Automatic annotation (TrEMBL):
AFP-like domain sequence ranges: 291-346
Protein name: Pseudaminic acid synthase
Source organism of the structure: Winogradskya consettensis
A Pfam family it matches: NeuB
NCBIfam families: PseI
Length: 346
């Protein structure tokens, strides 16, 4: 797919998405600052989430609406309260989108219901992301697909059958450009549960480009994902983890996001081809392999010994393994120190 003149797909430079989520901490100024640092870090896109507490759930204080007490980040919190705290007010969407476009970023969002899609269509969102928890909401997927915009589908917690149903629903509703994201929907996610080896399996199964929505700490896992074919990497962004925030504990700070941009591209460049043999970049190094050289001045008739012939750098003389064939022979002519040994000399 091509979004704002940037191609996203298998074999292409990794497309880096900075996820704002609730790390604006209830401040529009902070939200705009997150856009700025994402641009400065070199990300391609900034993503937000479009919902309100009322479009996500209902305000009921019952255990079924409550996160487990042992949850690492949001233990014991009620869903309504969490979404009320974390949501991005709809009035902020337009200034966030405007700032992103001014800074050369592509702004887009994860909508969670029809009203969110309607808002984002008014803002001319260039693509949509289906969040992991919404992968079974096939009507929402069909609605997003019906816009004709590229669709990114995250697969945290999903079975193969659920992913297939989501992709089929998107295609059936008219989606032509789909990226599926491998994801572990745990916050933060333990690296050992990331299962990067499933990336090529997903690519083979669904015949679409595969990316990574990553919630591990740091940038090691997403960089490694590039070697498995990840073409898009999404990471949460915060100005400073010490400031707190809904997702700040597992989010990248600006310096880490900048490092991810640089190092993921290096990893992609390093994939190269399957060719074995000297590369163009190694031509100079080939000159400095070892070979046999005369290492002291000699005269015709002198014996070839370990003192006057050695394997040294650079190339130009006989191969090092020829030493057993030349020791004990005699020089046929004078030779100065630094002369490559050849069969004509002995």
């Amino acid at each position: 797919m091509i979004v704002n003149d940037v191609e996203i797909g298998a074999g292409k430079r990794p497309y880096i998405v900075a996820e704002m989520s609730g790390n604006h901490n209830g401040s529009l100024d902070r939200a705009l600052a997150l856009v700025d640092v994402a641009a400065e870090a070199g990300a391609h896109a900034i993503k937000i989430q479009t919902y309100t507490a009322d479009t996500m759930t209902v305000d009921v204080k019952h255990p079924r609406f409550q996160l487990s007490q042992g949850h690492e980040l949001w233990g014991g919190e009620y869903l309504y309260d969490l979404y009320e705290r974390a949501h991005t007010p709809w009035a902020w969407h337009e200034p966030i989108f405007e700032r992103a476009r001014e800074r050369g970023l592509t702004p887009f969002s994860s909508p969670f219901d029809r009203t969110a899609v309607e808002l984002l269509e008014k803002l001319d969102a260039p693509m949509y992301k289906i969040a992991s928890s919404e992968i079974t909401d096939l009507p929402l997927i069909r609605l997003c697909a019906s816009t004709g915009k590229p669709l990114i589908i995250s697969t945290g917690m999903a079975s193969v059958q659920e992913i297939a149903a989501a992709v089929d629903a998107a295609r059936g509703a008219g989606a032509q450009e789909i990226v599926v994201l491998s994801c572990t929907a745990s916050y933060p996610a333990p690296p050992e549960y990331t299962n990067l080896r499933r990336i090529p399996v997903l690519a083979e199964a669904f015949r679409v480009p595969i990316g990574l929505s990553d919630h591990t700490m740091g940038i090691g896992v997403p960089i490694a994902s590039v070697a498995f074919g990840a073409c898009l990497i999404e990471k949460h962004l915060t100005l400073d983890r010490a400031d707190g925030g809904v997702d700040s504990a597992f989010s990248l700070n600006p310096q880490e996001l900048a490092a991810l941009v640089v190092e993921s591209e290096r990893a992609w460049q390093g994939l190269g081809t399957t060719a074995i043999g000297p590369t163009e970049a190694e031509k100079e190094g080939l000159r400095f392999r070892r070979s046999l050289y005369v290492v002291t001045d000699v005269r015709a008739g002198d014996l070839v010994t370990e003192e006057n012939v050695r394997s040294i750098r650079p190339t130009g003389g006989l191969a090092p393994d020829a030493i057993g064939l030349v020791l004990g022979r005699t020089f046929t002519q004078d030779a100065a120190k630094g002369t490559p040994l050849s069969w004509e000399l002995i």
